[in-house]
Design brief:
The complex is a heteropentamer, with one copy of chain A (259 residues), one copy of chain B (223 residues), two copies of chain C (283 residues) and one copy of chain D (230 residues). In chain A, 53% of the residues are buried. Helices cover 36% and strands 24% of the residues of chain A. Chain A has helices at residues 3-9, 34-45, 61-66, 81-84, 116-119, 131-137, 153-159, 170-179, 212-225, 229-237, 242-247, 253-258; strands at residues 11-16, 24-25, 31-32, 50-55, 72-78, 88-89, 94-96, 98-103, 123-126, 145-148, 165-169, 183-185, 193-194, 197-198, 201-207. Chain C is built from nine helices and twelve strands. In chain C, a hairpin with a 2-residue loop joins β11 and β12. Chain C is globular, with a radius of gyration of 19 Å. In chain C, the strands form three sheets. A six-stranded mixed beta sheet of chain C has the order 8-9-10-3-11-12, sandwiched between helices. With 230 residues, chain D is an all-alpha fold. In chain D, 46% of the residues are buried. Classes of the chains: A alpha/beta (259), B mainly alpha (223), C alpha/beta (283), D mainly alpha (230). Chains in contact: A-B, A-D, B-C, B-D, D-E. The B-C interface holds B 118-119, 121-122, 124-130, 132, 136-137, 140-141, 218-219, 221-223 and C 77-79, 108, 112, 115-116, 118-120, 122, 124, 126-131, 139-140, 143-144, 172, 174-175, 188-189, 192. The structure holds adenosine-5'-triphosphate (2 copies) and magnesium ion (2 copies). One adenosine-5'-triphosphate is lined by residues 40, 45, 63, 65-71 of chain C. Residues 69-70, 201 of chain C line the site of one magnesium ion.
Chain lengths: 259, 223, 283, 230, 283
């Protein structure tokens, strides 16, 4: 639904994908994370009284928007050209680099995405996540990829050796590594380099194609909110570095969508 | 104790599971009768429609049906310029009830065909219309015959509700997944999950037995 | 709706053991078969059968197994279709109806109307096992004749009284003996007030000691002058006692018919003699 | 691209045609899981049936309870349990095997009942005659009871084979690349779910119709010579 | 292994219709029941039964339904257990074995050894439906006695010849008539060369016209002086013809026993008289 209808209803439905620290639901059912916390501020500024949080699989986010199962996604989804053809993105809310989650002690001695192009070991990725494209660009064979449904399944997948590593953003990796002693972030990680540039992602809020007004209103408020110290506090609280926060100002969505 | 913390969200999920089971079993029961009677109808159009629905829903996987209704149906609607975006609860109840409706239809058909032909002749001799015969003679005699199978189907349905967690409905299995994702405490969460489903199944079985006994009273008194 | 009068409500001559000797020869035929043929596959079960029953007449059909006796009754009740010939019941064609002056195959409406003239009692009783005795009897009057519940119950109780089962009204059929079940079946058929009653070996599924109660009830009905009765039975002594006419069937044809005394004591046809000598004739 | 096969999104028909080979790769996994799951179910079910038939209550009763538990809990929950809990105790099976094991366990509850019914359908007189001829217990089971029970068991097992096939998509949640999972991945990457999911539905219909016909064919062909069937 | 001699291989007196009048009174008892009691739940089926059969004796048991006749045979075959008393077969206790000088409940080994003494023919034949006639007969000799296939087949053919079914060896039981099936069952039991043959109403599941063939075969077996036979039957004329002794059972006890002429023509006990007068005595 677009902005007018949402204002009329007084409720906005926002989806998260259970990814710490981007957006997740804790045990009492409240949404947390860089996406949801910022989204809550924006909703308040837009005068929308109530938020209905929807937790869903990462790969259901875009279909869910298209099927109008929610109005907005606050999962810090990376802004990518092929996604821009399906949905609308706000301006970037954050930026983040890549990482690798490995079993404690890094038994397979993995330090980069490229390693999988040669060593025949398996790497896990989440269904629908953009690490797939990176790995494909780096020449990792399809047979080496294990698709998991959920971020948190990575701990089990990696610690049991079903995959040697989990390819995800650096924040996801450190969040998962904090949770369990059986896994850790791969040390001396080398950023993947695609088309001569180290890979960095810019995450934003996502909307259905028809929700242009909502997207514009969110952009306005987001721009204002990003100037406040509260915004930086939210990002750092969830483990984003200063550089990650600064990075979000370096690109516009228009650029990211046409790259 | 950790598991005490899990109990509250799990119970919330269990309540959703109970509701889903209830609605889809009731709707599925209704569909069973419609399709089962339709399968025996003299009108060929009605009969073939019933046969197709039964075969499609018995012949494909429930999870495929769920995903199709959840992901594909809205797109099919879009292509036709229609809004077919059903809320997940509706998708869940619809898929579950169509599924047990298709299985139940065969049960209904079997039980109706097991009514002795002499009963139908007696009804005809008393000048009942075919519809009255169906409602007043055949169905009441067939229902006790169906009950044990329906009991099994109801339990099957309870188990199948777990699949709706995969379309993000907050049922018991979904809550368990969520807690495990958060706490990584697989053993406790899944043990609780299995036990809760088992408990619900036992209660459901007991309820179906009671129901079976009450609709079959005239048989129980028999010699 | 019908020109056949029904039996008088509940008025039953008590202890009537002698016969209904009312002369029915002058009356109009209420059932008429003209050259009726019935086949099952290749087997001809009724072979150009001509047959008449007059209003109020009590006719017994006897004959060897497979001779087509049940088939005659089942065709009348429209439970089987015929392959040739014409049947009239109460002056109207059973399997045809007049539409725009021509006879066309009857629709369900016409068949239902024709069936209302008749009631049938089956060998296996065929009570509805899921209904109490009373509901077995009220069901059709309420939902076919449109009686109110109170009227139907009053009528059911009246016929239960007639068959001597007033105290069993709230039981289920499975709680009754075979003889009691068959009497309920008779009450159920009577409650529709048919002008014609068809009985297909009503006592042959019963243990010998239960046969008497059912025959007793039928005998009392036979006292009703207006009720036409068509009865298939193997109880020769009983047939002799109640019927105005006995028809001996063999291979789908009537071999011989006449007053019971003549058929039973002095059959003319060899086939009849052979059949009767095969039956142990009691009493 | 999946399994090294590119898809062609130029038109709906071209898309459907181009993903068919990919879906068929998934179908192979589906069939493999069906077969492995079925074999496990057949073996575990026989084991359960024998335990349940034991005269020793300490064996029979737990076996009955286990059957009840396996039958009354969802496949999904059992699968999660096996996939996430077993590794905590050092048992790490690949996703495919875990999935097949879950199918096998769930359906062993059903197949154990099939065996029991099949064996009970052999008339008592057969046991008595065999004992009167002094055949040993093992010989009675293998030469007298089993051959008579099998023609009744096989068709019922065949029906469960079809059911197992329809439950395989559940394994997609533990990343088994069976047909439905393949279709979803195609959908995730092309954002077109309608065509792949509809094709999976159609393929399933074909598979189950063929399998059911196969079961009927087998049923009609079984060497029932002399065995009176009800 | 056993002190009971087996019937001579295949040597059968042809067309022997008169009786085996060999005096067996001097011989040792090969079956002995001492105060045997058998209960099913609360019902006492055998009540402190004493009973003896001598080697080579042909004994017929008659009596009303439910009197415990089948139970006697089934206990001998160890298909039922007993609740009290002792049974000796061929001088050895059936349900007990001596171990270290004391009697202990018999193990399966002992029971199997004891069963080898006996063969049984059932009312319902109980042939193995999934095996050909020949395999029905060779199965036990091969797998119990350890005969080679060739030996077992030779033996099977010999007994098939004896029962007159040499030409049916490759058929399945369902392709045979009831009388033929029962003859196969007799051949199957004989192929184990038991010293004692038990027959439980071997003809009562047969259509009347098939009874003769089976009785014929049994009659020929009765000619074997060394074969002990214990036969439950309702065929009184036949019992009279072949048996050395008739036992009349009632309520789990032997009411009366003696030579067939005496029991059948001049029973002493009222109960026996009543029973025999109830049976239509043919011929
Ligand atoms: N539905 C049917 N299909 C085929 N043949 C039938 C059918 N009903 C009856 N028949 C045959 O029709 C013939 C006449 O049957 P019918 O029941 O009228 O005989 P009946 O005189 O009533 O004999 P019974 O004294 O045994 O009841 C029989 O040969 C019977 O086998
Ligand atoms: N397995 C059983 N369980 C309970 N009661 C049994 C069982 N077998 C036999 N009986 C009862 O034991 C009694 C004797 O049975 P048995 O079969 O020995 O009688 P019978 O003399 O052979 O009768 P028939 O002539 O009918 O075969 C009967 O009352 C029967 O009901
Ligand atoms: Mg008849
Ligand atoms: Mg007996």
């Amino acid at each position: 639904a677009d902005l007018d209808q949402i204002r009329e209803r007084g409720v906005i439905r926002i989806a998260v994908a259970n990814e710490i620290p981007y957006g997740y639901i804790d045990l009492d059912g409240t949404a947390k994370g860089a996406g949801p916390d910022v989204a809550a501020q924006l909703a308040e500024r837009l005068g929308i009284g109530r938020i209905e949080w929807v937790a869903t699989g990462f790969s259901s986010l875009i279909p869910g928007l298209q099927a109008d199962r929610f109005d907005m996604v606050a999962a810090e989804m990376a802004i990518l050209p092929q996604r821009c053809r399906q949905v609308l993105f706000s301006e970037p809310n954050s930026s983040y680099g890549e990482g690798l989650l490995v079993a404690a002690g890094n038994p397979d001695d993995i330090h980069a995405y490229e390693d999988f192009a040669r060593n025949g070991k398996k790497v896990a990725i989440m269904a629908g996540a953009d690490q797939l494209e990176m790995l494909q660009a780096l020449g990792v064979p399809e047979a080496s990829m294990v698709t998991i449904a959920n971020n948190a399944d990575a701990i089990s997948t990696v610690s049991t050796g079903r995959a040697s590593a989990y390819a995800a953003t650096s924040l996801t990796v450190s969040g998962l590594a904090d949770k369990s002693g059986r896994v850790e972030g791969a040390g001396s990680f080398r950023d993947p380099v695609v088309d001569g540039q180290p890979v960095r992602s810019w995450g934003g809020f996502t909307f259905a194609q028809r929700s242009e007004k909502l997207r514009d209103a969110v952009n306005t408020e987001l721009q204002a909110f990003k100037q406040t110290p509260e915004w930086r506090a939210i990002l750092t609280e969830y483990g984003f570095s200063e550089a990650d926060a600064e990075g979000s100002f370096q690109r516009t969505t228009a650029e990211l969508c046409t790259e | 104790m950790d598991w005490l913390n899990y109990l509250d969200p799990l119970l919330q999920g269990a309540w959703v599971t109970v509701q889903l089971t209830l609605y889809s079993t009731l709707l599925g029961g209704l569909l069973s009768f419609l399709l089962g009677v339709g399968r025996l109808a003299s009108h060929p159009g009605l009969r073939w429609l019933s046969i197709c629905v039964i075969e499609v829903f018995r012949g494909t996987s429930l999870l495929v049906q769920l995903f199709w209704l959840y992901f594909a149906l809205p797109l099919a609607g879009q292509a036709l310029g229609l809004d077919w975006r059903l809320p997940p609860v509706v998708v869940g109840v619809l898929a579950l009830s169509l599924n047990i409706g298709a299985y139940g239809a065969e049960v209904v058909r079997g039980a109706l065909q097991a009514v002795p032909p002499a009963q139908l002749e007696a009804a005809k001799a008393l000048d009942f219309t075919p519809r009255q015969t169906l409602w007043r003679i055949s169905l009441p005699q067939a229902i006790p015959e169906m009950m044990p199978s329906f009991g099994n189907l109801a339990v099957q349905n309870l188990k199948d509700t777990a699949l709706v967690s995969l379309i993000s409905l907050g049922d018991l299995a979904f809550r368990a997944e969520q807690i495990r994702n958060f706490t990584q405490d697989s053993t406790t969460v899944y043990t609780l999950l299995l036990l809760m489903y088992f408990g619900m199944a036992l209660v459901l079985t007991a309820l179906m037995r009671l129901l079976e006994r009450s609709v079959g009273r005239w048989r129980a008194t028999g010699g | 709706m019908t020109d056949i009068s029904t039996i008088n409500d509940g008025v039953v001559a008590e202890g009537q053991s002698s016969l209904a000797e009312g002369d029915t020869t002058g009356r109009e035929p209420v059932i008429r078969f003209d050259a009726v043929t019935k086949k099952f596959g290749d087997v001809t079960v009724l072979d150009a059968l001509d047959f008449e029953v007059r209003k109020g007449e009590k006719v017994t059909i006897i004959g060897p197994s497979g001779s087509g006796k049940s088939t005659v009754l089942r065709i009348l009740m429209t439970l089987e279709q015929i392959d040739g010939g014409v049947i009239h019941v109460a002056g109207k064609p059973l399997w045809h109806e007049a539409r725009n002056g021509t006879l066309v195959p009857a629709g369900e409406e016409h068949l239902r109307m024709m069936r209302k003239e008749m009631g049938m009692v089956f060998q296996q009783f065929n009570l509805f096992p899921h209904m109490t005795v009373r509901r077995n009897i009220t069901e059709a009057p309420m939902h076919v004749l449109g009686l109110s519940r109170a009227e139907a119950v009053a009528r059911a109780d009246e016929y239960l009284e007639l068959v001597g089962l007033s105290d069993q009204a709230d039981k289920f059929p499975s709680q009754l003996s075979g003889g009691q079940q068959q009497r309920v079946a008779i009450a159920r058929a009577l409650a529709m007030r048919p002008g014609i009653m068809l009985f297909d070996e009503p006592t042959s599924a019963l243990d010998p000691e239960l046969v008497g109660e059912v025959l007793n009830v039928i005998q009392r009905l036979a006292g009703e002058h207006d009720l036409t009765m068509l009865l298939v039975t193997h109880e020769m002594a009983f047939a002799r006692q109640i019927s105005d006419r006995v028809c001996f069937f063999d291979k789908g044809r009537i071999v011989e018919q006449g007053p019971p005394e003549q058929i039973m004591s002095a059959p003319r046809e060899a086939r009849t003699q052979a059949f009767l000598s095969g039956c142990l004739q009691p009493g | 691209m999946l399994f090294g096969i590119e898809w062609d999104t130029s038109s709906a028909w071209a898309f459907a045609w181009s993903i068919l080979p990919i879906l068929l790769r998934g179908m192979i996994v589906t069939l493999q899981a069906t077969v492995v799951g079925f074999v496990l179910a057949a073996i575990l079910g026989l084991l359960l049936a024998m335990l349940k038939a034991s005269h020793c209550r300490a064996i029979a009763w737990p076996a009955r309870a286990i059957t009840e538990f396996l039958r009354d809990t969802p496949l999904l929950a059992q699968l999660f349990f096996l996939y996430y809990v077993l590794p905590e105790y050092g048992i790490v099976l690949p996703a495919f095997l875990t999935g097949a094991l879950a199918l096998g366990l769930q359906y062993s509850a059903y197949t154990s009942e099939v065996y029991r019914a099949g064996i009970e359908s052999v008339p008592r007189g057969q046991y008595e005659a065999a004992r009167a001829l002094d055949l040993s217990a093992g010989r009675i089971f293998s030469a007298i009871v089993l051959p008579q029970a099998i023609p009744r068991i096989i068709p019922a097992l065949g029906n469960y084979l079809v059911s197992i096939m329809k439950d395989v998509p559940v394994l997609s949640v533990v990343s088994v690349l069976e047909m439905l999972n393949v279709a979803r991945i195609i959908g995730d990457r092309t954002f077109d779910y309608l065509i792949p999911l509809s094709m999976v539905g159609g393929l399933y219909l074909i598979m189950t119709l063929v399998a059911s016909a196969g079961v009927r064919w087998l049923d009609a062909r079984l060497p029932k010579q002399g065995v009176p069937l009800k």
